[in-house]
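Hello,

Our lab assistant flagged a job as stuck in the queue for most of the afternoon. It eventually completed. Since we weren't sure the result was trustworthy after the delay, we are filing this so someone can double-check. Below is the sequence as submitted and the structure that was eventually returned. Let us know if re-running is recommended.
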Amino acid sequence: MKTINYLALVFIIILSGCSKDNPDPILLGKYTNGYFVTNEGNFGNGNGSISFIDDFGNVENNVFANNNSQLLGDVVQSMNIIYDNAYIVVNNSGKIEVASVDSMMHITTIDAVQPRYIEQVSENKAYVTDWGINGVQVIDLTTNTITSTIACGVGPEDIVESNGFAYICNTGGLSVDNTVSVIDINTDQVVNTITVGDKPASIVVDANDAVWVLSGGYTEYDPNDWSIISQTQGSLVKIVNNSIVLNITFPLGNNPSDLIIDDSGSSLYFSDGSLSKAVYSMSIYDTELTSAPLIDRNFYSLGYNDGKIYASDAVDYVQQGWSYRYTSSGSVVDSVQVGIIPGGYCFNN
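-- returned structure --
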């Protein structure tokens, strides 16, 4: 009887260990099947970081520092996965840190000036937008070195590639610009400049290869009392064959931001509002804005992956922030605490 009871106890323990209610914690150095959050950190403090959340909802903060015994740097702006490597853009430290995406072990550092976003544009080449040069740094992915630069507009920001062209949002940096630079990725030359709304900052490509650009509009303030001197409207434009075919304007005083697109490339999502924003959605076939918000809450950044909307809350911009997941219909799924000022998402699945 004692032998039977002992075996039964062992069997129960094994079953308990396999329960879905007790998912295994993240093993240090295993960062597959989940998503990364880029946490900017407090400006000037050098405490930017990366968080990883696996498919079970387990969180590991500071994954780069945990595996390399060093902090990432000042203002972790964005991250992109290219082949087996994570390219982590650290804006105020003027660099791109390259690490193995599965282990987060450091590989090399690419020095830039004020880099913002990185996008692979061909098999062995990537573009990095850089405010410090008002242009693009061209990266050789085989050597992870900068080989040349391309002059664009002021404050180049988000970037996409479509049909042999790279489209660069020139947001104006701390001033104002209203253009999208079109670069032939074979020649690394600007072949067109498209005028859009003031402060274009986010850009996506839809299922039909149309390019959508969201501009926040520009507000000029009196430096003495912060009263508004002038404003321009935000806009959402659709570009086909390097020409604008649709231009939707937002109410004056609204500052739309964070344009993203779903997995199928058929639904757009963005934040909009004046003092308090909400998340809205629209089909790529719509020709006007919807009036009802999908998620009536203000977020710092948005992402989309595998049928879910990801949204970050920077709280008070001093303490750790939060990342939320929603269904595509706007119902909350879960939330996790991440790093300071979570500003972007990168998915590894």
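-- support follow-up --
The delay was a queue issue, not a problem with the job. The result is valid. Helices lie at 2-17, 63-68. The first helix runs from residue 2 to 17.
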